[in-house]
Amino acid sequence: MTTPRLALADELAEIRAEIARLKARETALASIEYRFPTVPVFRRGWPMQRAARGQEQIAHAHA
Q: If you ran DSSP here, which 8-state letter would residue 44 be given?
């Protein structure tokens, strides 16, 4: 059950072509990176800090 040499060569050629495509895309994206504003990943209040269920019940009991 060996794979023919031609099939391996074809697969390697596809992989190399995909790598070249990804490198070109990386270069293109890097060249336009400065045009876009910086978007902060973490915003104040995100993610929401939720109290544990037991703490919520205690807070409501004292209110």
A: T
Say how far apart CA 49 and CA 30 lie, in whole Å.
35
Q: What is the pTM of this model?
A: 0.49
Q: Taking a C-beta distance cutoff of 8 angstroms, is the pair 24, 16 a contact?
A: no
Which residues are within 8 A (CB) of 6 and not within 5 positions of it... i.e. 6 or more apart?
none
How do residues 28-59 score in pLDDT, each as one tens digit? 998 888 788 777 677 666 666 666 665 555 55
> What are the residues whose beta carbons fall under 8 Å from the beta carbon of 61, sequence distance 6 or more?
none
| pLDDT greater than 70 at residue 63 | no
Structure token pair of residue 16: 């190399």
